[in-house]
Design a protein that fits this description.
This protein is about 35% helix and about 25% strand. By secondary structure, the chain is α/β, with parallel strands linked by helices. It has 3 domains: about 190 residues, FAD/NAD(P)-binding domain, CATH 3.50.50.60; about 120 residues, no CATH class; about 100 residues, Polyamine Oxidase, Chain A, domain 2. Strand 17 and strand 18 form a beta hairpin. The longest helix has 29 residues. The chain starts with 11 loop residues before the first strand and ends in a 10-residue tail after the last helix. Bound molecules: flavin-adenine dinucleotide (FAD). Pfam families: Amino_oxidase. It comes from candidate division LCP-89 bacterium B3_LCP. This is FAD-dependent oxidoreductase.
């Protein structure tokens, strides 16, 4: 996606979105029909607030959408539903009812031609790496713990965080290569707070205890061995939310790209859209909840923000996700997904949707899988043509002995730019500049993962949408504090929900 052009001189059609109870009423305009945008639209629509949802793609669900092809269902890589937030879980149940499945989790790491359970099972890891490496892992773990006891140090980056927690040898064996494939930068440049979010609460000791005693510590994220999941794929839930929005009178406009916002007197007046035919349209709104990437939102403002702000926006980097989606013969492996740490292949993960839900397979004899690559636009994988990508994926799967090239029946490529905000050292100061600039707009709220530049999972994205909608209706939540442990609930009351649908 290119940076939005400035709006001067553009021919723009005013789009009247009608039939609100009060014809002078302006709707709340939401950008992006992903989890955060849909959750916001849902909350507003069930409370009879006029709402218009703008989506660039031809379908809803964002990064959590489900793509149908040839009878099979593909998500954008594996999308496990997991939350510690009872309200979100209830929403999944309310929308999905009997279509919310309970799925056993099997995920393994592929490293040096061997499979290791993830979360790590010490006995499996011990026999997998062999006694010499296992002894080195234990020794390095014990010496790190000892030195941490004697002089604890605050980790400054991802590498130091993991080394402090697990020891250097385990970091090098099981964390380094995969993390660097995903983020495309050295682990020393990744912020320690990402590790804190991602693997918080897990230590080698916990992993050992878990493997021996089948841990009761269900709350530790990476130790969860079962998860809930929508029968038809992750996007099935978001399609359910979208139909409630439309039933309640909300409007969802697909295939429209929001390229800029006009503002005046500390208020956003309108959003400028480009439709499929390339025409520009303008929608005025009472408030704007924006889940498109934060940097795009800032650089699309007219009048333009000060240079310091536009420079901070340009300094935020996002990692893109490239999925080679295939329907393959049989079922090539039993895992929901496999993390591929080996550095002799470029692929980072393989998702198997039959192992999420039989219904996603669409046939008894084939299985939909996604071979996942993480890229910066412009790099050697991202720039390959589609048929070069399928060749790469086929060759790498053969090399890993996962499947033979002739087992691939059909395939297509899905590119998602700006899928992962890169939580690299120094990003916080840029976010601070952007946050303090946009705080002047009384009716503009970034929401969701790319919108707030946070490494959010679906449940956090949903929660930011719900809370932004509630703020519009009079509450005062600090949406920026929505985080992994749902701590925001402790400091603010959630208003009564209106369940009349
Ligand atoms: C490969 C992968 C695996 C993941 N696995 C999990 C998992 O297992 N569990 C989990 O909970 N989460 C997972 N996530 C995270 C999850 O996908 C996100 O947290 C969630 O989708 C974020 O929702 P959102 O609404 O903030 O953003 P998005 O899902 O990104 O939605 C934003 C929407 O805005 C649209 N948009 C963007 N710009 C514009 C514009 N200018 N105009 C109009 N529309 C625009 C986009 O097309 C998109 O539909 C995963 C993500 C990825 C990429």
């Amino acid at each position: 996606m290119k940076s939005p052009p400035r709006l001067k001189g553009a021919l723009i059609f005013k789009l009247e979105i009608g039939n609100w109870k009060n014809k002078y009423m302006k709707p709340v305009v939401i950008i992006g029909a992903g989890p955060s945008g849909l959750a916001a639209a849902y909350e507003l629509a069930i409370n009879s607030v006029p709402v218009v949802l703008i989506e660039r793609l031809g379908q809803v669900g964002g990064l959590s959408r489900t793509i149908r092809n040839n009878g099979a269902h593909f998500d954008v890589g594996p999308h496990r539903f997991f939350t510690q937030n009872a309200e979100i879980h209830q929403l999944w149940e309310d929308i999905l009812k009997e279509n919310l499945l309970s799925v056993p989790r099997l995920t393994r790491i592929f490293y040096k031609n061997k499979f290791f359970y993830y979360p790590l099972a010490p006995m499996n890891a011990f026999f997998g790496v062999g006694p010499v490496s296992a002894a080195a892992i234990v020794t390095s773990y014990l010496s790190t713990r000892l030195s941490q006891r004697i002089s604890p140090n605050e980790p400054k980056n991802f590498e130091e965080w993991v080394v402090n927690q697990f020891g250097r040898k385990l970091f090098e064996t099981f964390f380094k290569t995969y993390t660097e494939k995903v983020w495309g930068i050295p682990c020393t440049q990744i912020g320690a707070d990402w590790a804190g979010q991602r693997i918080k609460g897990l230590s080698l000791w916990t992993a050992v205890m878990n493997s021996i005693f089948k841990s009761k510590q269900k709350n530790i994220k990476t130790l969860v061995d079962e998860f809930v999941f929508p029968r038809g794929g992750a996007g099935f839930f978001y399609e359910g939310l979208a139909s409630v929005v439309e039933d309640k009178g909300g409007k969802i406009l697909l295939n429209r790209y929001a390229e800029g916002f006009r503002h005046e007197d500390s208020r956003i007046k309108s959003v400028i859209l480009r439709n499929e035919s390339g025409e520009r349209e303008e929608i005025e709104g009472d408030a704007f909840l924006v889940s498109s990437p934060l940097s795009d939102g800032i650089s699309g403002l007219t009048p333009e923000p000060p240079t310091e702000v536009t420079e901070a926006a340009k300094g935020l980097r996002y990692r893109s996700h490239l999925g080679v989606d295939m329907q393959v013969e049989g079922n090539p492996f039993p895992d929901n997904w496999i993390y591929v740490h080996s550095s002799d292949v470029k692929l980072a993960r393989i998702a198997n949707y039959r192992n999420f839900s039989q219904e996603m397979a669409g046939s008894d004899s084939t299985t939909p899988i996604t071979v996942e690559y993480f890229c910066f636009p412009g790099d050697s994988v991202w720039e390959r043509k589609d048929d070069e990508l399928i060749d790469l994926a086929r060759t790498e799967l053969k090399h890993m002995k996962i499947l033979q090239p002739d087992q691939v029946h059909s395939w297509f490529i899905v590119r998602n730019e700006k899928a992962y905000p890169v939580i690299e050292i120094g990003y916080e100061s840029k976010i601070q500049i952007l946050k303090s600039y946009i705080a002047r707009f009384k009716n503009f709220q970034p929401i969701g993962r790319s919108g707030m530049f946070k490494y959010n999972n679906m449940d956090h994205a949903i929660m930011t949408g719900l809370l932004a909608a509630r703020n519009y209706m009079g509450s005062k939540f600090d949406i920026w504090s929505v985080n992994i442990d749902a701590e925001y609930h402790e400091s603010a009351e959630v208003p009564q929900k209106n369940h009349s649908q």
